[in-house]
Amino acid sequence: MSEQFEPNIVAFLCNWCSYAGADLAGTSRIQYPANIKIIRVMCSGRVNPLYVVNALQQGADGVLVSGCHPGDCHYMEGNFYARRRLKLLKELLEFTGVDPRRFNMSWVSASEGHKWKEVVEKAVEDARAAGPFDQFRRRQIGW
Amino acid sequence: MDLDKLRKTAAEIVSRDDVKYLLGWRRGTFGYRVAPYFIEDAAGVDELIFSPLCISNLATYLTLVEKLPVPRGQEPDQRKVALLVKGCDSRAVAQLLVEKGIKREEVVVIGLPCPGMVDRELLAEKYPETEAAAEVKWDGEDFLLVGEGGETAIPRTEVLAEKCRLCRHPNPVISDLTIGEPVEPWATADDSGVAEIEAKETAERWAYWEEQFSKCIRCYSCRNACPLCYCEDCILDRLDPTWVNRAVNFSENTAFHLARAFHLAGRCIECGECERVCPAGIPLGKLNRKLARTVREEYGFEPGLDPEAEPFQAGYKPDDPEEFIL
Hints:
The complex is a heterodimer of chains A (143) and B (326). Chain A contains 4 helices and 4 strands. Chain A is α/β, with parallel strands linked by helices.
């Protein structure tokens, strides 16, 4: 019996909305896949697109960036900048032949525990369909 | 092109007290080669040329020049730098002004409407270079090769550089003075290089770029030749945090090329210097043009046209496209 591929997904969540949303999902005992590894950042605008590239280099099969809904940003406009940048990154990854399903972006507010569950399920499903990532994985250096 | 007028104007500008030097082109020492030329006094203008071989973008030197600390008791050199710009080069100057990489009062921009440049490698393939310096001239729409064997007419389509086939702004967008008549913008060719890759399947696209990126020797010529890659503290040189390892292996090469392309998104003015100087022949221009097209088509923004514009990635509109967001 073959085991199902379990992708590693790195999620960058903004402190004010998405992280709180994920927290709400936890305190509300909403079940969602455990493939997601959360990194809290202060704002989705803080996510340098190179974080995404670096995550893929270092072992992620998929990356998810999540922030506040447009207009709700704690810093007024951080998620607008993130939206522009990450759109370009997604286009660039797609153009170079990285499966576009590996990179997802979402808006999840602090009260959307259920939406968080759906987003994670979608991201995991996408990464699973794309398969293990080995396109430009950094090789482990043996000491 | 009226070379006499160009030289006369250049001599006038160089002799001005507030001008440090003038950046232009002169003949190289071999075949079709053309070298950048720093003119410091009026006697030097005789070697100045502007021909279809003057493809290099001199705006690079505005930021490439080393700014040494001023010794105590000395005044900093406030003199201007004059430079010759084609249409694409002038966009680089405009974009540098947008980013405050240079100040307007630091430069004297001499605009040269550009009827299209020759790709030296294409030319050398069809008409091999000899040791004797040869010259190429504009002949109406076409080019005229003047060498040892007399004059040869070359059809425009045969040797026109790729960036010129796609050029939308042959006339300088900013200049203090323009020499020569503005040229009619020509019908641009389809960007077949980008469209060809876009039409492929994901795996085929990867196969293509995998081959390209693995050729990279990480000489960073593309960074150095680019007029808009001028960060004093470049991420490629940083060790803490190490964004991109120095190791030349496929993983780091890919990360480097993604980073380079991304850092030029919404800034690249498509002068094609990165691709021209690449010793490994990686089609970097395709990455840049793909992102430039996304910015142009989806955000209606074109960099390097308005020196007063807001930098693309430092701005936003509430109604930016977000169909990709869950």
